[in-house]
Recover the amino acids of this structure.
């Protein structure tokens, strides 16, 4: 089941710079997208979401962009901080469905 | 900030034994979920629960699995006869609602189940 893909398993970014994490999906029925951050030995922590009627949602240092025609979303973190080092998962859900489909995650490392 | 709590944090059991994983969702949430993550793999949906019944389940959630909300605060996942391949991190989650409200899921810290 590769409906949600995160093609970069890891990413390293200098502190203070922008981190850009990418996610692609194949199911055109997905209409709600989320980003989660996960530290070791903890559960996923919700960061930000976007519904398919929007193309951008911003919350503080985090911005999610959705390109429906390309079936692509991205998470921008600016400025990146050492505490942002974690695994980031994108997830998607179809309208009326309960199930979240997760990507495989991208490990972000912020270099001080 | 309210949070989802799960107990125990780590459960070791022998193959064929029954296990019950426990969760206390966020108190005003209406939807409850179990997900699991086998080491090195994706987080996978198991089941969703609303209004005291299963609303959706995956093909993983076979007859060996059951869920219950016995007392209005706890939400449990039971595996009747554990198999080696059930070894995984099990995450409970809850949300205030879905559909038009598109509310996010909030996850607990998980129970690591090891079947030997």
């Amino acid at each position: 089941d590769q409906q949600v893909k995160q093609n970069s398993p890891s990413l390293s970014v200098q502190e203070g710079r922008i981190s850009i994490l990418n996610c692609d999906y194949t199911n055109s029925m997905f209409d709600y997208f989320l980003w989660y951050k996960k530290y070791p030995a903890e559960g996923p922590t919700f960061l930000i979401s976007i519904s398919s009627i929007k193309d951008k949602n911003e919350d503080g240092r985090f911005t999610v962009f959705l390109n429906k025609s390309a079936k692509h979303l991205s998470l921008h973190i600016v400025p990146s901080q050492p505490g942002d080092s974690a695994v980031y998962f994108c997830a998607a859900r179809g309208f009326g469905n309960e199930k979240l489909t997760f990507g495989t995650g991208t490990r972000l490392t912020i270099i001080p | 900030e309210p949070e989802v709590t799960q107990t125990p944090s780590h459960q070791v059991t022998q193959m064929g034994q029954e296990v019950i994983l426990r969760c206390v969702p966020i108190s005003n949430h209406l939807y409850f979920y179990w997900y699991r993550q086998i080491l090195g793999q994706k987080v996978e949906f198991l089941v969703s629960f609303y209004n005291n019944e299963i609303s959706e389940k995956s093909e993983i959630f076979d007859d060996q699995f059951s869920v219950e909300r016995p007392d209005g605060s706890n939400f449990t996942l039971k595996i009747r006869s554990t198999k080696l391949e059930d070894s995984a991190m099990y995450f409970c989650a809850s949300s205030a609602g879905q559909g038009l409200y598109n509310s996010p899921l909030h996850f607990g810290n998980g129970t690591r189940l090891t079947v030997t």
About this structure: The two ends of chain A are 37 Å apart (CA to CA). Chain A touches chain B at residues 32, 34, 36, 41-46, 49, 51, 89, 91, 93, 95-105 (CB under 8 Å).
